Amino acid sequence: MEAFWCRFQPLSAPALHSSDGRVGDSVPDTSLSYIDGVDYERECMNEGLGKETLLYADSDLLVYDKAANCQTAPGYKTRESLACNAARDFGVERVDQMIAHRLDHGTSGVLVFARNVDALKSLHEQFRRNWIHKRYVARVDGLLPSFEGEISLPIQRHMESRPRVRIHPGGRESQTQWHVLQLDEEAQSTLLSLRPQTGRTHQLRIHLASIGHPILGDFFYGSKDIYNKADRLCLHASELSLHHPRTREPLRFTAPCSF
Q: Which residues does 247 contact at the CB level (< 8 Å), separation at least 6?
């Protein structure tokens, strides 16, 4: 069975990294290739559903540590999802009124749901005003050439290859800050801490792939070799901070990374 993969043309180091560690005045070209016979079963299964951990619950919020390979919300392929299970367990009638944000199927970590419309409105407003802060951990291919930096590349939906996105001059402005947590010279991989400054679909995945360091296990933006280097997408939402929708109390939730 055929699967789509996105490969990026390599860029020279000066085009990627300036003296202050920022990335990306230059936009890389992308081209598509096809790889046959890829074992991508984990991309089609909800094997992580039921393995989540409830981190917090009150009358307004539900916060989970979502497992990898688990659908956040009902999709076009299946209605089985963490949101549906949470709605059933906590007696929420409208699943669509719980969804303030999503984590990709392969991404694990902190995920917050609303339990009522007022809470949902508050979360949407906090996301819109950039009052909610998120941190991710990712293991990427290769060794980063500096300790920290920022990727600033515009992202556009890839209409010919949905649900993927691409780097394109006509895309929406997008920024990701990163710094190195660990270099593994033997495995030729790097563990990164990531702070997205914008919230575009697949932002972290396309940004890291665009600078030549795709996330290990990435089905959409890595080569077959990158996909097979890990038994999951090595992307984890490790921290989320927000204000409680009713009391305005600052809340911070964390979830340990397993890779």
A: none
- Residue-wise pLDDT tens digits, 28-71: 443 333 344 455 556 668 999 999 999 999 999 999 999 999 99
Name the class of domain 45-129: alpha beta
Counting Cα atoms < 13 Å in the Cβ hemisphere of 14 gives 0
Domain boundaries, the chain: 2-42+135-236, 45-129
pTM, to two decimals: 0.86
CATH T-level assignment (fold) for domain 2-42+135-236 = Pseudouridine synthase (3.30.2350)
Structure tokens of 185? 């010279």
130 torsion bin: left (phi>0), alpha (psi -120 to 50), beta (else) = left
Which positions are annotated as active-site residues? Answer: 104
